[in-house]
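Q: How would the structure tokens look for this protein?
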Amino acid sequence: MCPEPCPGTAGISYEAYLEERCATVLVLPLDSVALARLFKPEGPPIVISRLRTIGKAWPAVLCCGVLALAGSGVAVWGAQSRGDGAAADAGDGVRVLSWNVSDDAFVRDPAGFRAMLTRADADILLFDEVGPETTETQLRAALAGRRREGSDDWHVAFGRSGGRQRGVIVSRQPLERLPELSEAVPYPASDRDRIHKRMVAADGDRPGYSMDGGIPVNGAILKFGDRRLLVVILDLQCCGEDPAGWEEERRRVETGEIRARIDQVLKRTKVDGVIVAGDLNLVSTPLPLVILSGPYPLPHAGLIAADLRQLDGAETWTWDGRGSPFPSRPMDFVLYSPNALRLRSGFILDSADLARAELDRLGLKPDSASRLSQHLPLVTEFVWH
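A: Here is the predicted structure in token form.
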């Protein structure tokens, strides 16, 4: 578990935490198999492949990831998924799609949106950066026809926090809204004041970056028989590559508050498994990912990030920077609790990777995904332990 005080608390900076505390991680109780897997030459793909593109601080992420997960007995940082994108047997699987829909993708092109969902074939849909003008009626219209076993029934929960970047949870399973995450989640007053002053000083006090709407997050508990799955969708502050910039500080504050809210839920009610997904906007340091990882109350302890690749088996980026001054990179992640869930398969869905016959069957074009959003959807399938 994380030694106290954890980063972000009074008197402890994130940089000091990394420098002074992460070095002690290897004395924590991880077995030799776990360490061998973490440090083998080729390395877990989540560390080598995805986090290297985020920044040069990936060794710090590795040590803090171990730190957060040490209490859970987890053997690897990122579980590697099958990269063929094939649907797994229904069985007891939990199939999830997570997607930054860039405001209103399901309104601009409902047919293309529906076709992408058809290819993903998920029972839980987590959408982030949903614009304030979009409605549940519009979303349900775009979902129409996504039928399984003769049913069009969907349970839909629009989050009330985030202003122009709301989170929406859609599920075939009954869901329970959570006051900790479904309602407005304000920035802590002292953090808000400090960040706002920095924004003004840096000429970053723009309407699109307003904190008035609260932190962009939504959460619900989905019921699978007697099992209860906590799902959280979020969208962190964008931009700002400077580790000392206000944007990175805001991302850390956002993840710290979200982690605290998740902690409250886990202490208040029965939860068997946890999935946290969304656009982390990791353009500076990996610390927001570390903060979200935990620690959480046992038996959950820590979350790990699913290692996902595009259907070509090579690319790991989820945000398309082609045509911009910025490189394509992994910005969207799915984290889960390995004590309860095992990643059975998963992939990053880009229509450009689909064969012509499949594009024709779905009514898609190679550039359909990029036209819908700059972010690609992530598809994961989990099974309960």
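Residues 246-268 form the longest helix (23 residues).

The CA atoms of residues 252 and 270 lie 27 Å apart.

Upvote if useful.
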